[in-house]
Specification:
133 residues; mainly alpha; two-stranded antiparallel ribbon; 6 helices; 2 strands; cytoplasm; membrane; metal ion binding; calcium; EF-hand-dom_pair
């Protein structure tokens, strides 16, 4: 079973820590755990070669199966940010990527209740998204 590096753990926690408390309550942890399990199922279904990483061309299908809106730009961003030099994502990196994208998508949708595709952020809101989420 692969281990999650400390930075991945921090990122996963931040994806659920909406109050910026530096910790999760039991309900937040439960939701995080359910998301990790769902991501694990997606990862397991896609890495058919039984190696501990998925290819970049599998990433779009993985993100789509999680209900995320996906295009080539997003897949490339995810590969560059979370993948190795060849564009492969390990299990911990995939989980981190998936939960980060889910968190950002949820926050964007909450800030865009009309579905216009645009949001306005002040500096503090931007910092929260850029640094902490």
């Amino acid at each position: 079973m692969p281990k999650f590096p400390l930075e991945v753990c921090r990122s996963l926690m931040a994806s659920m820590d909406i109050s910026v408390a530096g910790s999760l309550d039991l309900e937040q942890f439960y939701i995080l755990w359910k998301k990790v399990i769902a991501g694990t199922c997606i990862f397991s279904a896609l890495h058919k070669e039984k190696i501990d990483r998925i290819a970049g061309d599998q990433l779009a299908a993985a993100l789509q199966s999680a209900g995320l809106p996906v295009d080539d730009f997003l897949v490339r961003l995810a590969q560059v940010r979370y993948g190795d030099p060849d564009g492969f994502l390990s299990y911990p990196d995939f989980i981190c990527c998936l939960l980060k994208l889910q968190s950002l998508t949820e926050k964007f949708q909450a800030a865009d209740p009309t579905g216009s595709g645009e949001v306005t952020l002040n500096y503090r809101q931007w910092l929260l998204l850029a640094v902490f989420s």
